[in-house]
Write a structure and sequence with these properties.
By secondary structure, the chain is α/β, with parallel strands linked by helices. It has twelve helices and eight strands.
């Protein structure tokens, strides 16, 4: 990847469909999330379409799926296929994997395989969708292995659009995505780099505090249009967290161009803007 040709790195890009037409979520959850985000663009672009979208805009993207097969009963997309596709488009795509933490030793073995054999740089975990508490000691072996492998862990935090508006939210429990549960992980595994995704509503102050306190914790700004960010998050990202805040869109639910248009209205200083849009992610991902 030629960073001189890249103007921004989106660290939060979902692969929602594979080459065989399988989707990452069942139809009910897929439709509910699209309605929540008022997404009117293609909801399930292929990896090739994602690469084209970002290449046309001179951007790079971290791509991943979420393996929540135990909790949802819906088969996950293949992280191996995503990694192979990213390798074919390595001018713009950066592969992350996903494992189902509730599979115990099998998840640990799979994580190692995805790093060592398929070259994924990190993992996406969604505690609410996957139905697990990150600070449960049962998941310590997984985080110990990811720390050993030098992987990055991108955790969903806060409210989720998945299940939004459905009875009982389809059983998805928001409390599992309280960032304070992830603070325990960051403390127990200090060499594990962690990204707290989204503004963490209703726990934005917690994420700001954790990222300020823990050298190994970063925040991404995906999942919300920036004009709706809590004011304290805007201040933090533009000042004392400017070296730890990362651009993320939540594509395909929010496109990078929509996000950037809104972000441009916040008045963030140019130095912080450059760090957030590209340099912080490049450094964290080892691209510099």
């Amino acid at each position: 990847m030629n960073l001189d040709e890249i103007v921004a790195i989106d660290v939060h890009t979902h692969v929602e469909a594979d080459g065989q037409g399988h989707h990452s979520l069942d139809d009910e959850l897929m439709e509910a999330s699209a309605a929540y985000f008022k997404a009117d663009q293609l909801r399930t672009p292929t990896l090739e379409q994602i690469a084209d979208h970002y290449r046309e805009r001179r951007m790079a993207a971290v791509v991943f799926t979420v393996d929540a097969s135990t909790e949802t009963g819906h088969p996950a997309l293949s992280s191996e296929e995503i990694a192979r596709g990213a390798a074919e488009h390595n001018d713009v795509l950066i592969p992350f994997g996903s494992v189902d933490p509730r599979r115990g030793p099998a998840a640990v073995k799979r994580a190692r395989m995805l790093v060592e054999e398929h070259g994924v740089l990190g993992f996406k975990l969604h505690p609410s969708l996957q139905g697990f508490a990150p600070n449960d000691p049962a998941y310590g072996p997984l985080f110990e292995t990811l720390q050993e492998l030098g992987s990055i862990v991108l955790f969903h935090t806060g409210q989720t659009g998945i299940g939004a508006g459905l009875p009982g939210g389809r059983g998805i429990k928001l409390r599992y995505s309280d960032p304070m549960l992830i603070d325990d992980v960051a403390a127990d595994f200090p060499d594990l780099n962690i990204i707290l995704a989204h503004p963490s509503t209703p726990w934005a102050d917690s994420s700001i505090s954790i990222a300020t306190h823990k050298a190994n914790v970063f925040v991404d700004l995906s999942g919300w249009m920036p004009k709706y960010f809590p004011p304290q998050l805007v201040r933090a990202a533009g000042t004392f967290l400017r070296h730890k805040a990362l651009f993320g869109s939540d594509f395909p639910l929010i496109t990078p161009e929509r996000w950037l248009s809104s972000f441009g209205e916040l008045g963030v200083q140019e130095e912080a803007r450059r760090l957030i849009l590209r340099d912080n992610a490049a450094r964290l991902l080892g691209l510099f």
